[in-house]
Specification:
heterodimer, A: 318 residues, mainly alpha, 15 helices, flat, B: 332 residues
């Protein structure tokens, strides 16, 4: 298993390289010289040339053949990779801060929203899914499914706008904007849960129902095991594999934050930071973000595999 | 059940196949769908939306070809921000444009996004998934690597980045000038963004199916007869998995509509046409003045379409391929 884990962790190199390559392609190749975006609309050619030179945008994109063997890697993409590999995330263009500092400051507010959101939604979704599966084909099950699908048919934007306007502004139940204490997080988390729980319930319900029709359930019922025991001891444990996959893969994305909620409620998290960076042409922030994100993604994948062996002892990692 | 019938009929040349067997996959599925009252209601709703979409297209193209400003874009400042009335059932917006007309055009944009995105998603996802599943080995490694890369970036960020950059590139490039005369550059950019991220789910699905089908007897028989790989992939296996494309489309479409709204809010959506996302985003400022109708109109239009698509997609999936249930992950 150790060898397997190490082999899987090594895939972090190609995955991260691929992600960087796509980002690089988008922002430097397709997007043109970033110096134009940095300098603004009324920049002189000299200013553009200066920025290009300072930040290395005047170098070749992938490989440098000017002075063949010696400076082959003195090009934009290899330099970017080398810089990130040293864990040097560069400096933000708009705030002149170190990107590492910005990330450190941003991830706490992001997690303050996404972690409670994620946990509450998961617990609620699995509870409702078990209920629906237990009472399947009754009015309760159908009602839960219809409400879930209706819930996921409304745009998150609308949930946020309506809640912010009525609950916070008109009825003054919650603060409208800001990040000054735990109470400021209640409404964003609440909205996130309401907006997301429908889809999760529907997903987990099908997972549970798939297990419900397995033969071991029939056997258990035949020998007189009570419904609740079947549900909690047999079905839930066997449904662990799809549940785990779904849960662990979502974890790396918690760090990027809930983009819309952060924007509407003025939470200074990473989601908001990334979007601002995107529109300001602040590439160092974007590169750092996708770099860390892809590493976390690979780690989460490995954890999922390990968790499989725990959930289902028949699975062996080789 | 579907699988059983396909294995029993190995590679019958299309010419000799008896036309319209009474127990075909689609016929059985349709019979089952027709019994499902909820699915039938959804189908009617989808039919109504399709009619509205076609109507909106005629309004749009009628005005475009005659070179006049379409009625839904004519502003009349005397009647701005009016609540719903007999003349304007959904009220008017900040420029005195009829809100209903805007919402109807939003239907057009929603359908256009669904179709244009599928033009990217279906060929890309299908060909890559089929090649990966059919050939295995190195091809499979490369395809899996490709979609792992897409998977490891939060989808909304990737869509946003692609849409933002592509829009800039489209606006700058002279090649696209002729295209953007007819299709909004923002709409095109959004479709690019959602297309180049959305192929992953279809690709995974198709890959898994091709992995299964390439071991089947009929494929072996075709190979023994010397049929080329391409013909086996597209003429023999494709008809057995084509229903997956339709299921995937009907379940992906609602997600596209919802994502478009988010993109509009973040500023990379459709630029010069009233998409539902753009209407909702416009309504944001005037909600604080108590103008609820702008938000309500677009939200309701979006709600019923997404709801009908979700429910109908589920029913279609159950009718065509009941085993698929958990293979579909939840929508973002």
């Amino acid at each position: 298993m150790g060898a397997y884990i190490i082999r899987r962790l090594l895939s972090v190199v190609p995955i991260t390289l691929g992600v960087l390559l796509i980002t690089f392609f988008l922002f430097r190749v397709l997007g043109g010289n970033p110096a134009y975006r940095i300098a603004g609309k009324n920049a002189t050619a000299a200013r553009i040339a200066q920025i290009s030179h300072e930040r290395g945008y005047d170098k070749p994109l992938f490989l440098n053949f000017q002075d063949f063997p010696r400076s082959l890697l003195d090009a934009q993409f290899p330099r970017l990779c080398a810089q990130l590999a040293r864990l040097d995330f560069g400096e933000s263009l708009s705030t002149k801060q170190r990107v590492s500092t910005m990330l450190r400051q941003g991830f706490v507010p992001s997690l303050c929203v996404t972690v409670p959101l994620f946990v509450i939604e998961l617990v609620l979704a699995i509870t409702f899914a078990l209920l629906a599966a237990y009472f399947r084909d009754t009015w309760l099950d159908r009602g839960l499914v219809v409400v879930s699908v209706m819930g996921m048919s409304i745009s998150t934007l609308v949930y946020i706008m309506v809640a912010q306007y009525w609950l916070a502004s008109e009825w003054r139940l919650f603060p409208v904007w800001g990040f000054e204490g735990p109470y400021y997080l209640v409404l964003p988390v609440l909205i996130g849960v309401v907006a997301g729980v429908g889809g999760s319930v529907r997903f987990y319900r099908t997972v549970m129902l798939d297990e419900m029709f397995q033969e071991y359930v029939r056997t258990a019922r035949a020998k007189g095991v009570p419904q609740q025991t079947i549900l909690f001891r047999h079905v839930l444990r066997n449904a662990m594999i799809p549940i785990l996959t779904n849960v662990i893969i979502a974890i790396p994305f918690l760090y990027t934050g809930a983009l819309l909620l952060e924007n509407f409620f003025g939470i200074p998290g990473l989601g908001r930071m990334t979007v601002t960076a995107l529109f300001n042409g602040d590439e160092d922030v974007i590169f750092a973000d996708v770099f860390i994100g892809s590493i976390l993604f690979v780690i989460a994948n490995v954890i999922t595999d390990v968790a499989y062996t725990w959930a289902d002892p028949r699975i062996r990692l080789r | 059940m579907t699988v059983a019938t396909t294995t029993m009929t190995p590679a019958v040349p299309p010419q000799t196949a008896t036309p319209a067997q009474p127990t075909g996959l689609w016929r059985i599925a349709w019979r089952q769908l027709r019994r499902n009252r909820l699915a039938m209601i959804c189908l009617v709703i989808l039919g109504v939306y399709t009619a509205i979409w076609l109507y909106a297209e005629t309004v749009f193209w009628g005005a475009r070809l005659r070179g006049v400003t379409p009625a839904y874009k004519v502003s009349n400042y005397d009647i701005r921000n009016q609540p719903p009335s007999a003349a304007h059932p959904l009220g008017t917006n900040y420029a005195g444009r009829d809100n209903l007309g805007q919402v109807i055009q939003g239907t057009r944009i929603a359908f256009e996004i669904g179709l244009l995105t599928s033009v990217i998603v279906i060929p890309l996802g299908f060909v890559l998934g089929a090649a990966a599943g059919y050939f295995g080995r190195k091809v499979d490694t490369v395809v899996v690597y490709l979609y792992s890369i897409v998977d490891s970036v939060p989808p909304i960020l990737l869509i946003l980045a692609i849409a933002y950059v592509v829009r800039g590139a489209i606006d700058r490039s002279p090649v696209f000038q002729t295209v953007t005369q007819y299709i909004d550059s923002g709409l095109l950019a959004v479709c690019f963004g959602m297309g180049f991220t959305g192929w992953v789910s279809l690709c995974r699905l198709i890959r898994a199916e091709y992995l299964k089908h390439r071991e089947r007897q009929y494929v072996l028989a075709a190979r023994a007869l010397g049929v080329s790989n391409a013909a086996i992939m597209f003429r023999h296996i494709l008809p057995n998995v084509s229903h997956l494309i339709i299921i995937n489309f009907s379940l992906r479409f609602p997600g596209l509509i919802l994502t478009e709204a988010v993109l509009s809010y973040l500023g990379v959506g459709v630029a010069n046409e009233p998409s539902w996302g753009a209407i909702i985003n416009d309504a944001k400022q005037r909600l604080w003045l108590g103008n609820w109708w702008e938000l309500a109109g677009a939200t309701a239009a979006m709600f019923f379409l997404v709801l009908a698509l979700n429910l109908f997609g589920d029913a279609l999936r159950d009718a065509l391929d009941p085993k698929l249930r958990t293979a579909e992950a939840k929508t973002a």
